[in-house]
Design goal:
The protein has 76 residues and is an all-alpha fold. It is built from 4 helices and no strands.
Length: 76
């Protein structure tokens, strides 16, 4: 019997955010998206630092379309 993707997603959503991030990262890395992108050690550390800040609630996230609308109003 094949695994049920919806069931797996539901199970993954029960994990803590850091564990969900690990699952998401692993799944994305498993996809063959063409050319591999090399990320430096410093770049990986910066990504890790920013993800931790988001997980800890130290950063207020803003939806991208809100930011773009703000810039359009300012510069149009």
């Amino acid at each position: 019997m094949k695994p049920d993707p919806k069931k797996r997603i539901h199970e993954a959503m029960q994990l803590e955010s850091s564990s969900r991030a690990l699952v998401a990262e692993t799944l994305l890395e498993s996809l063959d998206l063409g050319a591999d992108v090399e990320i430096s050690k410093e770049g990986r550390e910066e990504i890790r630092r920013r993800c931790e800040a988001i997980d800890e609630g130290a950063i207020d996230l803003v939806q991208g379309d809100h930011v773009l609308d703000k810039f359009r109003r300012k510069y149009d």
